[in-house]
Design a protein that fits this description.
The protein has two domains: 147 residues, Rossmann fold (3-Layer(aba) Sandwich), CATH 3.40.50.1000; 129 residues. Helices cover 36% and strands 26% of the residues. A six-stranded parallel beta sheet has the order 9-8-1-10-11-12, with helices on both faces. A six-stranded antiparallel beta sheet has the order 3-2-7-6-4-5. The longest helix has 14 residues.
């Protein structure tokens, strides 16, 4: 039987540290869930900036983020939104914003570095609000690989399991992750929106007998539904959001549990049966 496992990255293969800053009030939000901020309103979007973090640090603090993006021709992609938002419309909001400054990005980057000394990578994102035409939040995300992630993928490779990564992050960070956990870059899908993750799973189902999706957030919901087996990881938070628990077939508290799930495919009973799912749900 040909099996593929698709992993989300943040919160699934990586333990993440996120800090957001409210552009209007200056308030810091620690350990924020980016997708929850986006999901509060129908026309908000998470925008990934494809830029090396060192370039952000060198910029004048009072420089507008919109000016920095325009002057340096920074590529930005829509990573997540409740409703479909056109990239050009989203970029128009960013270009016209006159409130969000580079200092805010520098502040959240510094906050994440203080919280995570052995940081694996650092990324920045913006949240835009199409209704107000503004950037209400800036967010910095830093992560490091879970201690078992590399060994899990190594074991899956040895068993002949197809391993893929589908993430809302950019290849700038994902290429480093892929190299670290030994996943070929051609098996890594960047800037994957919820719809794109679903599409990736459906495409892989044409090639494999079974496709397992492993994710941890609401942006993985469509892919969890599309997979033959949807695995929800709560290793990052220890909490099981009701909607995700309802949709997931299996809930795990440690990435190492994936090996046991795959190995059970060789046992007489069917891992995809309702009895397996009910037994393994948290």
């Amino acid at each position: 039987m040909k099996i593929a496992v698709v992993f989300d990255s943040a919160g699934t293969l990586l333990r993440m540290h996120r800090v957001a800053k409210n552009v209007r009030t200056g308030e810091f939000l620690d350990q924020v869930v980016s997708t929850e901020l986006v999901g509060k309103k129908p026309y908000c979007a998470l925008m990934v900036m494809q830029v090396d973090s060192t370039r952000l640090v060198r910029c004048p603090p009072e420089m507008l983020i919109s000016d920095f993006i325009t002057q340096h021709n920074i590529d930005i992609e829509v990573a997540c939104s409740r409703n479909r938002i056109d990239k050009d419309d989203a970029l128009d909001v960013i270009r016209k914003d006159t409130s969000a400054r580079m200092k805010y990005l520098q502040d959240v980057m510094a906050a994440v570095r203080r919280k995570c000394r052995n940081i694996f990578y650092l990324g920045v994102v913006l949240i835009i609000d199409m209704d107000t035409g503004s950037i209400p939040y800036v967010i910095c995300t830093g992560g490091k690989v879970y201690s078992k992630s590399t060994n899990v993928i190594k074991t899956l490779n040895e068993k002949g399991i197809g391993v893929y990564i589908a993430s809302g992050d950019s290849m700038r960070n994902l290429s480093v992750l892929a190299k670290n956990v030994c996943v070929p870059q051609q098996c890594v899908f960047e800037i994957s929106t919820p719809e794109r993750k679903e599409e990736i799973v459906k495409d892989l189902k044409k090639e494999y007998d079974r496709v397992i999706m492993v994710g941890d957030g609401i942006n993985d919901l469509l892919a969890l539904r599309a997979a033959d087996l949807g695995v929800l990881s709560i290793q990052q938070t220890g909490k099981c959001p009701p909607l995700l628990c309802e949709e997931a077939d299996v809930v795990i508290k440690d990435i190492g549990e994936i090996i046991g799930i795959v190995e059970k495919l060789d046992q007489p009973y069917n891992i995809f049966s309702s009895s397996f799912r009910s037994t393994h749900l948290a």
